[in-house]
Amino acid sequence: MHINRVKKALKEGKSAFGCSVLQFRSPDVIRALVAAGLDWAFLDSEHGAYDLETLNDLMRVAVREGFCPIVRVGDLQYPLVARALDSGAQGILLPRVESPDLLATAISWTRYPPMGVRGFGLSAAHLEFESVTMADAIAHFNEHVMVVLQIETKKALERLDELLSVPNVDAVLIGPADLSIALGLPGQFDHPEFVAAVEHIRDECERRGIAPGLHLRSLQMARRWRNQGLRFLSCNSDIGYLLEKATETVGVLTGKID
User: How is the chain split into domains, by residue range?
Assistant: First the structure.
């Protein structure tokens, strides 16, 4: 059974860097991200078009490579959370969370009894055909599953203390686009009110031993927030990396970039 290295690193106070994956279906995308040195990715089934078969193919490779696959589910529903985990996810990213009670319920779906209510159903994605007892499997996956909370609305910001008080939240991944829109500052990621909101979330997370994080498209902004204590950072996406490098290459070859 595989260890969730990202969860372990965050609990030790270390940083873990990732990106979003929402477009390409080839498992070689995961291998490329591993080769680049990233630690994790969130596979986006909220805004992406992945079905479970594609998620399973990507996650099988990720787990074998020691790379942490986290699935962002489209909604807080038991079948979406449980089936993502059954397909090999090592973590679940919960979007648009505003209710502490619903958050607690959703977290219970990620763990087997007695810690939660997840139905028992493991596959080769978890065990790689290793022979283990049911009790050992339950203990292992309850320990290594990772829960990531997204803060991306004004109401979530207002209820931050309640949300972060729910047990077994491992990390927060701020959704900057939606949060900036909710604050009436769409795309103004340098605005003092947006910056203050991120700093407030960071401080409250650290106070509770939760890893603070942010998903960004800009490397410059990612560097800035890394230097300001955010440890669970996601920068760019599979398609974004391709577009940026291709644009740079064409720019150099055509003389538009020195």
Answer: 5-253
**Closest to 20 in 3D by CA, of 225, 217, 257:** 217
Select which of 2, 47, 140, 144 is catalytic.
Answer: 47
Q: Which residues contact 249 (CB under 8 A, 6 or more apart)?
A: none
Residue 223 belongs to what H/E stretch? Answer: helix 219-227
Over residues 137-144, the mean pLDDT reads 95
- Cis ω before 114 (30° cut-off from 0): yes
Question: 206-228 pLDDT, tens per residue?
Answer: 999 999 999 999 999 999 999 99
pLDDT of residue 128: 78
Across 93-127, b (16+ Cβ under 10 Å) vs e yields bbbbbbbeeebeebbbbbbbeebbebeeebeebbe
- pLDDT (average), residues 182-208: 97
Q: Does an H or E element contain 19, and which?
A: strand 16-21
154-168 core/surface letters (b: 16 or more CB in 10 A; e: else):
eebbebbeebbebeb
Beta strands in 131-228 (DSSP E): 146-149, 171-174, 211-216
47 given a catalytic annotation: yes
Residue whose pair of structure tokens reads 């991944």 in the numeric block: 173
CA atoms within 13 A on the CB side of 230: 25
pLDDT digits (tens, 9 = 90+) for 69-124: 999 999 999 999 999 999 999 999 999 999 999 999 999 999 999 999 999 987 77
Question: What is the helix (H) or strand (E) element at residue 105, kind and residue range?
Answer: helix 100-108
pLDDT value at position 257?
A: 87
Instruction: Evaluate whether the domain defined by 5-253 bears CATH number 3.20.20.60.
Output: yes
